[in-house]
Every structure is written in structure tokens, then in C-alpha cells.
């Protein structure tokens, strides 16, 4: 493959092509093209484009490192034109415009919040408005002596890293052929990525229950539960459970990998007492949950068969299941049903440490999300605190929709944070997998997971 740093205007340029690079494959103008194991996906993509070119091809190239504008010649010559304009999917992840919402949109007691804040430092990782430095209070000599240390704390050591990480994606590919200079230190994007992955990778003392709610069906509760569980399991390690707490027939079992059995929540409930005995082993749980071999978490399915009203889960049933889940898992992601009056729905809220409101950009889904926050806030006490500290995940329902900045601005006034998820055909796949999503979608889920992680530092008091 040859390289070039300039492209003369005398060369004919063919139509623009859209290239998205993923794990083991690339997508060219909507066509998925697999790449042999061990081969460079970026090099394979360039070679494929060159083999079809009759002249210089203008390429908009996307991967998890960002978007690049390239020119590819028939002989494999690559020219870096520079960073491309922010595409709609990326634009939707940007901070909402710094305009003040109208009075009816922003209650005085719930001002808009920054997208993600590290609670250890109370400092936003990404912030569009510079924070005002607090006035320094002089320390006494004794206080200064007590604070002296020559060892960096964990946060200081982490934030002080200056060695650039290995650069992947288009930046790494262009550096490897000499079209980009290697960075002297980590880029702002890499610093943000490190901070978010570090937040997601934390282990907290005691189990945490993260609940997905929206009373409307099809509002993306199941994808949100599955993909958040995948993100935390991939980066934080084992001990993550995705639980379908639907009062009737849920869909999580249909959209995730099936284990060597067909067990569901009723089977686990029948064995709950045995699993709580001192001699019970963690491996015994494998007979009841379905391990996701790629994304490293387990799934507890709802009953896939039609059930009579008297067979629905009761409050005591939910408590028994949650005791088992809390004994064997550190993070429990619950996909709720659509009936807010169901006993298992109400009890689920009482066990929740972090509320996640899932919605799409459809107005009826968004309105249902607003109403469930409003209803919880009216209950006061713990339920109101859950609503105040909620994270709203806003998924694009259609690829032709405009960026969701308006939705984000409104939800940031109603909850702690709001995270946009771009439209992705992988979200509609039969089986949900992180690697089945486009790179920019995976980054969006990482942002959302970091927002959720920021609310897990303090375990809430729950009803026994």
C-alpha cells in the first residue's frame, strides 16, 4: 500500500463512500464484509475500496476512535484529508445547547445537570462551562504536615498519567503508514475514555440493584438492561446478572444467548431456599441462569409460557429471588415489566439502588418516561430520591431522526443525567451483543454506563 500526503485537483474523484470499521468486519455503504482472523480490518477495508475504484475515492471512515475523511486511489494510495464533521449520531452525544430551558421545562428544584460527574472529586469529566474555582482556605502548619505524602493517591496517579496509550482505529492506522504524527500524551478523548472505563470497572462493597423502567412497551428497557450489564461485565468482571422481572412473558430470553437448559425465574424460585443454604455453591446457579459467553454476564429469564394471574410473582416471591441474586451477584440489572401496579414491580422499586429510565425518541415513550419519574417523585422519601438521581437513556427510534438534544435538555432537568444512544441496526438484532453494535454506539453505551456507575457509590437503605 502506498501513501500520499497531498491530492492534486487534476485527479478524478469518484462518489463519496461510507465506511464503518468494527470487530472482524467492516461495513461499506451498508454492506457487511467480514475480514479473516488476524488481518488488519483497516488495511482490508482500504484494499477492498481500492480494488473497486476507477479513480480517487472520497471516504468517510468511522470507527471507535472517531471519524476521518480519507481519499483512496486505485493503487491503494491513502490521503488523510482530516477529521470529518461530527455525524448526527456523534452530535447527539454532545452536551445540550447552553440555552436556558423555559420555566415549564425546568422546575426550579431540578436544574439541568452535567452529563457525568466523578463523585470522588465532584468534578465533571466533560463540562461545557468552566467551573469557578473555590476560594482557597489557608491550612495550618499542623494540617500541612499531616497531609504530606510522597505516594500518589489512586485518583492522582490515574489523572496524572501522561504516557499515550496504544492508538487504535483510523488514527493508529494512519500513524502506522506515516500520515499522522504520534501524540506526545493521551488525547482528551483518551482521558475521557480512561475515566469512564475506570468508573465502570469499580467494585463496590455490597450488591447494587439497577432497575430499568418505563410503563410503555417497546421503550428500549430490554436493550438497556442487556447492554448495560454487558458493559459492566466486560470491564468490571464477573458477578453481573440481567434479570427479566416481567410480570408475564418478557423478551429478554429471546434476545440473549441460551444456556444448556431452558430454566427461568420460576425454576430458580422453586430452589431459592436450597441456594441460600451454607453449603450451596456459586456454580450451582448455572442450572438456572443463562451465561452470555461473549459479554460475560448471566441472564435470569422470565417465564416464557402463558401464566394464570394467580401464578404471577408476589412480593415475597420477589424478595426470595432478590436474596439469591444479591448473594451471588455484585450488580443486578432488572428489566421491569409494564404494569406499575404489579407486586413484583412495586417491590423491585423498593430494592433499587440506581434507577434507569429507558426511552426512545418517540413522543409517547418519552412522555411515559416523564410520568414515571413524576409518579415516583410524588411518593416522596426513597422513591423521590430515586427519581432525582435517575439516569435517562434516550435511544434513537429511527435512523432519519434529528439529534435528541431537545429530549436530553428536558430530561436533564428531571433527572441526574441523560444519555443519548444513536440509531443502530444492531439494537434491533435478534440477539443483543456489544460487538454487534457500531463503534459510535458502543461509545454511547460507555458514556451511559459511566453515568450509571456514578450513582452506585452509596448503597441505599431498603425495606427488609
From TrEMBL:
Biased composition, Low complexity: where in the chain?
A: 89-106
Q: Which domain of life is it from?
A: Bacteria
UniProt keyword Transmembrane helix, yes or no: no
Residue ranges under compositional bias (Polar residues)?
67-82
For region Disordered, the annotated ranges are 67-124
Gene Ontology MF annotations: ATP binding; ATP hydrolysis activity
Per UniProt, the ranges with Basic and acidic residues bias are 107-122
GO biological processes: negative regulation of cell division
The UniProt entry's GO CC annotations, sorted and at most eight, read: cytoplasmic side of plasma membrane; cytosol
- Keyword set, alphabetical order: Cell projection, Cilium, Flagellum
The record's section on PANTHER family has:
ESX-1 SECRETION-ASSOCIATED PROTEIN ESPI, SEPTUM SITE-DETERMINING PROTEIN MIND HOMOLOG, CHLOROPLASTIC-RELATED
**What protein name applies here?**
MinD-like ATPase involved in chromosome partitioning or flagellar assembly
Protein species of origin:
Allobranchiibius huperziae
At the highest ranks, the source species' classification is:
Bacteria, Bacillati, Actinomycetota, Actinomycetes, Micrococcales
Amino acid at each position: 500500500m502506498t501513501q500520499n500526503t497531498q491530492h492534486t485537483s487534476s485527479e478524478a474523484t469518484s462518489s463519496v463512500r461510507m465506511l464503518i470499521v468494527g470487530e472482524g468486519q467492516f461495513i461499506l455503504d451498508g454492506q457487511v464484509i467480514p475480514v479473516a482472523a488476524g488481518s488488519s480490518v483497516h488495511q482490508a477495508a482500504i484494499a477492498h475500496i481500492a480494488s473497486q475504484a476507477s479513480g480517487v475515492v472520497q471516504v468517510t471512515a468511522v470507527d471507535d476512535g472517531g471519524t476521518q475523511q480519507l481519499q483512496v486511489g486505485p493503487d491503494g494510495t491513502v490521503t488523510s484529508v482530516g477529521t470529518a464533521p461530527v455525524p448526527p449520531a456523534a452530535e447527539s452525544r454532545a452536551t445540550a445547547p447552553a440555552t436556558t430551558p423555559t420555566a415549564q421545562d425546568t422546575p426550579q428544584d431540578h436544574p439541568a445537570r452535567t452529563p457525568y460527574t466523578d463523585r470522588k472529586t465532584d468534578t465533571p469529566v466533560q463540562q461545557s462551562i468552566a467551573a469557578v474555582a473555590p476560594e482557597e482556605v489557608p491550612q495550618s502548619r499542623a494540617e500541612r504536615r499531616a497531609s504530606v505524602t510522597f505516594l500518589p493517591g489512586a485518583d492522582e496517579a490515574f489523572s496524572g498519567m501522561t504516557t499515550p496509550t496504544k492508538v487504535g482505529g483510523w488514527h493508529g492506522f494512519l500513524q502506522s503508514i506515516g500520515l499522522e504524527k504520534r501524540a506526545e500524551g493521551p488525547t482528551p478523548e483518551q482521558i475521557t475514555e480512561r475515566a469512564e472505563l475506570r468508573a465502570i470497572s469499580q467494585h463496590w462493597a455490597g450488591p447494587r440493584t439497577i432497575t430499568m423502567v418505563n410503563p410503555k412497551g417497546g421503550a428500549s428497557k430490554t436493550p438497556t438492561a442487556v447492554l448495560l450489564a454487558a458493559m459492566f461485565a466486560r470491564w468490571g468482571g464477573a458477578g453481573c446478572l440481567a434479570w427479566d422481572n416481567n410480570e408475564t412473558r418478557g423478551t429478554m430470553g429471546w434476545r440473549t444467548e441460551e444456556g444448556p437448559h431452558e430454566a427461568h425465574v420460576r425454576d430458580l424460585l422453586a430452589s431459592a431456599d436450597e441456594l441460600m443454604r451454607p453449603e450451596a455453591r456459586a456454580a450451582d446457579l448455572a442450572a438456572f441462569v443463562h451465561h452470555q459467553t461473549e459479554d460475560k454476564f448471566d441472564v435470569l429469564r422470565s417465564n416464557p409460557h402463558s401464566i394464570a394471574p394467580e401464578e404471577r410473582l408476589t412480593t415475597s416471591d420477589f424478595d426470595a429471588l432478590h436474596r439469591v441474586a444479591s448473594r451471588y451477584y455484585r450488580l443486578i440489572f432488572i428489566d421491569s415489566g409494564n404494569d406499575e401496579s404489579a407486586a413484583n414491580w412495586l417491590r423491585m422499586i423498593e430494592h433499587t439502588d440506581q434507577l434507569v429510565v429507558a426511552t426512545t425518541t418517540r413522543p409517547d415513550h418519552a412522555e411515559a418516561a416523564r410520568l414515571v419519574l413524576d409518579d415516583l417523585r410524588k411518593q416522596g422519601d426513597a422513591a423521590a430520591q430515586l427519581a432525582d438521581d435517575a439516569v435517562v437513556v434516550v435511544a434513537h427510534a429511527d435512523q432519519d431522526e434529528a439529534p435528541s438534544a431537545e429530549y436530553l435538555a428536558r430530561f436533564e432537568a428531571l433527572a441526574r443525567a441523560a444519555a443519548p444512544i444513536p440509531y443502530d441496526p444492531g439494537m434491533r438484532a435478534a440477539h443483543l451483543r456489544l460487538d454487534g453494535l457500531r463503534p459510535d454506539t458502543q461509545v454511547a453505551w460507555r458514556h451511559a454506563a459511566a453515568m450509571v456507575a456514578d450513582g452506585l457509590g452509596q448503597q441505599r437503605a431498603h425495606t427488609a
